[in-house]
Every structure is written in C-alpha cells, then in structure tokens.
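Box 3.1. Reading complex inputs
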Amino acid sequence: MRALLLLIAAALTGCATYSYSFQPIDRALEARQFEEALKQFEQRFYPGGTDTVLYHLNHGMLLRLAGRYLESNEALERAKMSIERVEAVSISEQVTSVMIGDATRSYEGEIFEQVLLHVYKALNYLALDQPFDARVEALQVDIRLRELVSRRKETVFTEEAFARYLSGIIFESLGEWSDAMISYRKALDSFRIYQSKYGTPIPRSLQLALVRLSDHLGIEDERRAYSDEFSISHWTTVVERMEQGELVAMLDSGMVAIKREQGSQAFDPQSGRMIRISLPYYRTRPNRVTAARLVIDAQQTPLDLVEDIDTMAIKSLQSHLASITARQVARAVVKYRAAKEAERRDPALGLVMNVAGVVTEQADTRSWSTLPSRIFLGRISLSPGPHHVVLEMLDAFGSVVHVQDYGTVTILQRQTEYLSGRWTAD
Amino acid sequence: MNLKAKNFGVAVAISVLLIAGCASGTKVQRIEATEVRDLSGQWNDTDSRLVSEEMIKDVVAAPWLAQFKQEKKAAPTVIVGEVRNLSHEHIAVNTFVADIERNLINSGAVSFVASKGERQEIREERKDQDLNVTEATRKPMGQEIGADFMLKGEINTIIDVEGKTQVKFYQVDLNLISVGDNRKVWVGQKKIKKLVEKASVRP
C-alpha cells in the first residue's frame, strides 16, 4: 500500500503546470529563432483535450512569427472555432474541475485574448495584402464584443482599444469614411478608459485621425472639440492624403507576462490532514524595449503605445481572482470529504486521497504566452515612390537597442502599406 | 466483496470508459450536393447555391439580353469583375460566380472572356507560341475579344446579436455594367436570413 501511495504521489507531481512546459519555446524566442521555436512547439504540443484553443492560439502566433501568414490564419481560425465550441458550459468538466482543479477545464481564452485573435488574423491578412479579409476580422471583433457585452451584462469593456483603432485604419484605407469614424470614436472611448485606469496616453495618430475624419465628414462641432482637446490646428486632410500613400508600422515588443503558481501547504493538526491552496499570478518578463521610432529617409517619427497587454492581463486576472478562490474553497471541502470518507473505509486509502487531493491542487497557469507585452503603432503619409524604412527599438534611456531595416519600401498612391516588427528578446 | 475486488471492479469500469472514449473513429457519410446541412450557421454551400440559382434565373430572364441580341445580332460577351466581400464572414465568392458563369456559357446566351488574372497567363502562352510553335497552329496576338459587359457585385451583412442568439442577414448584389458607357443593364439581388442560436451546454 505504501508503494502504491508513493507511486501516485510521483505520478501526480509529474503534471507540471502549463507555463513551465513552454520554457524551451520561450528560450528559442528569446534568441529570436522563430523557426526553431515553431519546431519545438510542434514537437511538444498536440491539439486536442482541454488545451485545444491554447494550442491553436500559440501555434498561430508562432507561424506568424515564422512569416507563414497563411498557415497562421488557418491555425487562428481553428482557435476561433474551438472557442465557439468550448464556450458552451461542459457539465462533465465542471464536475471534474470541482473535484480536481481548474486546469482540467477547457481553456477558452481571456476576453482580451479572444479579441487579439481577430487582431492578429487581420494583421496576417494585411501582410498578405488582402485588406477585404482583414475587414472581415474587423467586423467580427465588433460582433464578438457586442455578444460579450450582452452576455455578461457588463457595460464597460477596456480590452478593445487597439482592435477598434486597427478596424478604423482598415476602413479608412478602403475609403469607408463613416465606418472609420465610428471605429475611431469607439477606440477613443476605450483609450480614455485606459488613460484613467492605467495612465497610458491617447495615441497621437488616433487624435489626428479623429480630427481628419470629422473634418472630412463635415461634423464641425466634433472636429472643433477634438482640435481643442488635442491642440491640433494643422492636419493633412483626407483629400490631401489621396495624393499620397500611407505607411502603418507596428511593433510587437517583448513577451507577455506569464502565469505562475503560488501555492502554500498547511497541516491541519485537528484533522491530521494536509490542505493546499494554490493561486495563479502573472509574472512579467523583462523587456528593454520601451519605445520605438520609424526612420524614413533619415526622418524620425515616434511610434505610439497602443496596447499594454501585460497590464490588461494582470487586471483581467485580478477580476477573476475572487471566483478562482471561491472554487478553491469549494474544492477543498470536496477533497476533505472524499478523504474522510475513504479513511472511514481504510485509513491508508484516506491518506492516499489526502495526498492526491493536495498534489492535484494546481493553479491554472494557462495563457496565450506567445503574445507580446506591448504593441506600438506609427502611421505616416508618404509621397508615392520608394522610401528607405528603418524601425528603431529604444530602451528607457532612449538609446537604440535593435534596428530592423526594411530596406526600400515602395509606397503607392492611395494605398496603405503595413509593416510589422517583433522583439522577443529581453 | 473485499476491498481489493472492489478496487479491481472500479479499475475495470474506468478502463472501459477510457477505451470507449477513444474508440470512435472517423465516420463518413455521402450526401447529395443539394442536401441542406447547416452546422455552424455560417455562410455555406447551400447559401452559395441559393444565390447562384436565383441570380441565373434572373439574369437570363432580364430584358438586357434580348435587347442586346436585337441590336448587335450576336451574343454579348461578359467579363467577371470583382465581387467584394463586405460581410463579416470569409465567404468564398468564386463558387457562386463560377456557377453563374457556367450556366450562362452553357446556355449559349452569353459568352465570357477570361478575367484579368487568367488573361495574363494566356498572353504568356501566346508569347511562347510565337517562338516555339509551327506557323499553322500559332495564335497571333491582338485578336482578343473586348467584353461588352462586366459583372461586379458585393456581399453585405447585417448582424443582430443578443447573448448567444444571432440574426444574420446576408444581401448579395450583382450588377452587370456596360463597359462602353457604364450603364447598369441588370441588377440582381438575393437576401438570406438566418437565426443562429449557439449551444449553452455541452457534455
């Protein structure tokens, strides 16, 4: 019986939490070896079971990093389908999660992850020069958010600022001015919430876009209000911009914070049993790149911070912590009762149940860990023709950490060219 | 029953469950191409077929065809332009456009010329023939037929969402535009409406 007990204990400690099993991939990413990271991932993980959504999300991101946009979109589409499937509450999973732990439930993604899924699909389509397909994703973000708002009966959402802003850029590039205006307004609303909650400023390029489009659509009151608030007296009009092309550059900087487990065990002398509580927490990962700028034909344009995913992730977990803790307590009761019942039949079996209960009490540390920690964006209108484009990544002191040279980029009149960069080292 | 036997029983029961869980292999069942099977509520083959059937019926019956034949004493030549997907779903537009094209060609009422992308490939072939093919079978350049009409269109959607329920409204508009003078000679429209309710529980 003792041997059996040891065996169970050994087997169960073998279930390392999700974020630990991701380490080889993280190492490859830190070395900026994207193909290697993808290879490591494909060797280690398989779709299926409760981590299917997570598999497709991470797979999609790694394929994108390797520049395989088509396959990345296929993976992300599968993630979308899987999310739809697991959103329905599973009765059997609910039962096991009460008995064993949260990590046994199907992962359906945090809301910000679900929104970013559409964002990255849209970015892949833009990289593939399929703006109308990117537009489809922009519309899906809108439907998704409407669906979530009506389902959760929450009025304020803060996860949508960048998704809305990108939608606006896509609409504007397709000449759909009123749709662009609506998206920019919604982006502004969310950025205002970001500003008051996290202190992140409203991106300058969005301020300009709001003035430009309200001017073009003849909404004079609104235009004046934006001009006053953002002190913008000069701007390039929509008509003037038609003579030019636009460059939109995005930098995904760093690696998003990962979930780790914080557990503590206690011995209850009264019952003679072990009790364990373990909760997930976010650990941010070091990232030197805190700003970026575009250097086009030796002229500098700073990029704006448009999404602080780390902060969003941490806030999101904080809002769930109450329910995670409640489930833990409920589980502790179930496990205690099970051990007591087993002990009544056989003291050794009671001990087994207690050990099993303690060992299986693991926090759910799953998250879309290949996301960046911050997204920067810059927009600049340029005269049609070739331009030399360089993206410089800067640290907190303003010195250049890394230079990404895109070489000569040809800008076409009335066309938007999208460039994206990724910094995954620290 | 002693404890050991009982444990054994439980173990057997669990194993049976596990094996049963793995045993279901892929099942294939052939169905008719016209059979309606709605799975996710998204745009599918049935929608595509409904649109093409409606459009074909409409475009052949419309007066533009008879008028053109009377004036020019020949079948009109049409080219397929861009059908824009402005909906919220990734829709394979080409399937119903190809359906329409095939029906019109096979009916003999209309002839189609190759679209922009296809033309390029054929021109390359002609260029190649110029160098490598016998005089008798060589096709000269500059003999292409200019299209009389261009088929263009767009797909739009309106979605109403409340929790797990969605009402999806698709509208497909196709226009036949006279290349010579930008006149719209035919406008076809098909509307499709669906109510989609997502599951709220699963096993």
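In summary: Residues 11-24 of chain B have pLDDT under 50 and may be disordered.
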